[in-house]
Amino acid sequence: MEVSLQLDGLDMPVAAAATGEADLIKVEPDASVPSLGQRFQKGEFYTSFEEFIGTLQHYQEQNNVFFVRDSAERLKFDEELMERLVYKYCVFMCKQGRRKYKPTNPKIRPNQSSFKVGCKAFIRLGLKKQVTGDYVLEIKNSNLEHNNHPVTAENAYKYPENRRVNVDEKLKSVIVSQEAKPKHLLEIIKKDQAKTLLSRDLYNLKRKLRKDEKPNPVFPSQQSAATKQSLLKPEERVVMLEPLLHNSWSVCPDRDALQKEFMFSNFSEVQLLLFGFS
Fold first, then answer.
1. Relative to the CA of 179, which of 128, 194, 206, 262 has its CA 20 to 30 Å away?
2. What whole-number distance in Å separates Cα of residue 87 and Cα of residue 125?
3. For residue 6, how many C-alpha atoms fall within 13 Å in the half-sphere facing its CB?
4. pLDDT per residue over 185-215, tens digit each?
5. What is the residue extent of each domain of the chain?
């Protein structure tokens, strides 16, 4: 015969006593240490932002969820609080939260780079002054019920916050290759960057990379006057510059150009030289 020992909600079998009926032995958890299911309730506080992040990471690993910072306001003017608490208020949302973008025109494909499905799970932190005068980060309110997506490790850690891929030269050569199969490419990106892409994402990425490889045509109107004309050879420069250098022209010391100083007695002489009238 066996009896059941309950440890914080987990049933564990233990050997029954030699005599007597089976009993249910209940071990009460320490009330001062919240369990994972009791985390992030209103009024719970943290003495530092680092402490909150450590608790959040542990909660995410144990519950197969993933939160990202949605909005926040940093603390100012108090260096000690800025370093310890960081934020005046901060909101963390499920990475698949917010409303999914839907274009008004059904023919327009949405520019949706993430997997937003409108999950309503969130945690809101705010600055709180305790009766002792110390400041802490307090849970103002929260909703830990995830909806519109499965709560699994695959969904939490393999589905990225966004589907943008960091493409280096090695990955680029594989993607633009004609022999590479789409399914194989998706597996490579998933293994290399832990990002699950859609087939449409891969198509757009390949199209963009191939377009970048093609040189942009240079139209005659975009060519500068310097590129249209060929530069003088050294021997040609000597022959063509010699008459100018003997006629008060000189080579500019800071650039490849010629200069000459003109002296005028009045502005009318300048107009006559430049525009042909006085």
1. 194
2. 9
3. 9
4. 888 887 777 677 777 778 888 888 877 766 5
5. 1-28, 43-103+111-160
